[in-house]
Amino acid sequence: MKKLFILLLLSIVFVEFSFGQIDNKATNETKALYQSLAKISKKNILFGHQHATEYGHGWFGEENRSDVKSVTGSHPAVIGVDLSGLSGRPSAQIAKTAELLRKNVVDTYHRGGITTVAWHFSNPASKGGFYWNDTVSVVSIALIKPGGSHHEAYKEILKTIADFAKSVKGQDGTLAPMIFRPYHEFDGDWFWWGKSHCSREDFISVWQFTVTYLRDSLDVHNFIYAFSPDCKFHTEKEFLDRYPGDAWVDMVGMDNYADFGRNGKYDIQTGVKKLKIVADYAKKANKLAAFTETGLESIPNPTWWTETLLKALKSEKMNLAYVLVWRNDSRSPTHFYAPFPEQVSVPDFLKFYNDPYTLFENDLKDVYGKNK
């Protein structure tokens, strides 16, 4: 009887530890990262920046550099990369892109940082790239779903993604975990997978197939799967309109620039309300939550970091794992979302950096469980 009670207790602990992760064959490091994110989100939030170590304001491809590090002394805790270059291009170019990307992800892993992966991949059935183009784009979600005319071609694309996922090995032979965020901002119309370009049923079918094929057929076990619409919703029902189900999602998030200063328009109260919808669903479904994209282009507001973003993040108990701002273009003088030396928001960003609530790469301690 005592032995049965102990086994029952252990099973309860295991269920709590699993925290809703959808891949029961996930690598130990991926499981550890998942649990680290859950733990961190209870008291802190990680800061992330897209393409932070690949390029920045006025530079490209420099070793161990980021604009955030130039300002604070630390890289962001979360580094955003993109798999856009792994399809729709000549095989030699794909291989070169994959190798550069592999190095970036592995370097972040060795430093103890975290990688999140976006996927702006080109329309597999027409020209037009990843943006929707009325003159050339084809409604393709219906074509790549199981039974569709381009389904086999889609499977080949996923095989390339899987090959990359299984190539990011650290010096100890372990695979670097990644937060994989496909089909983001699907509630808008700007991408070919957007809401007006496919049915709810077809979108869900493609999402479920994508996860199932990568995880169960191609043996990718170092992905944490993130679901992140844009900010078009106002209720939980609207947020979940194209949700594929808890069995196919590890993390829920939201991309929101519109409520946080885009074009000079601020509606922080609404932005927080939407974030809370995301976070509340995560708690209810036993999932992770994150503010997957935001930012203010050019950061003309010198106190945006503390008076807008930090206040919003702290205004409710939301348990968000990370917040990520968009990229700093290497050539454009105005397209940047994180400060660089002498940018007007640097003093405020340093306050944001020094706030005990925010964590950067230098603050991370064994998120992959290697010292256990």
Q: Specify the CATH homologous superfamily.
A: Glycosidases
Molecular shape: globular
- How many domains, in number, for the residues? 1
- Any idea of the CATH class? Alpha Beta
Q: Biggest β-sheet: count, sense, barrel?
A: 8 strands, parallel, barrel
Stretches where pLDDT is under 50 for at least 5 consecutive residues are: 1-18
CATH architecture: Alpha-Beta Barrel
Question: Please, how many helices?
Answer: 11
CATH fold-level name:
TIM Barrel
Structural class: alpha/beta
Strand content: 5-15%
Please list the strands of the largest sheet in the order they lie side by side: 1-4-5-6-7-8-9-10
Number of strand elements? 11
Please compute the radius of gyration using only Cα atoms.
Answer: 20 Å
Helix proportion range:
25-40%
State the end-to-end CA separation. 31 Å
**Helix and strand string, N-terminal first?**
HHEEEHEHEHHEHEHEHEHEHE
Mean pLDDT: 94
Catalytic activity: Random hydrolysis of (1->4)-beta-D-mannosidic linkages in mannans, galactomannans and glucomannans
Organism: Arcicella aquatica
GO molecular function: hydrolase activity
Subcellular location: Secreted
List the helices and strands and how they pair.
Elements: H1 2-18, H2 28-40, E1 45-50, E2 55-56, E3 59-60, H3 67-72, E4 78-82, H4 91-111, E5 114-118, H5 141-144, H6 151-165, E6 178-181, H7 200-217, E7 223-227, H8 236-239, E8 251-255, H9 268-285, E9 288-294, H10 304-314, E10 322-325, H11 346-354, E11 358-359
Parallel strand pairs: 1-4, 1-10, 1-11, 4-5, 5-6, 6-7, 7-8, 8-9, 9-10
Antiparallel strand pairs: 2-3
Helix pairs in contact: 10-11
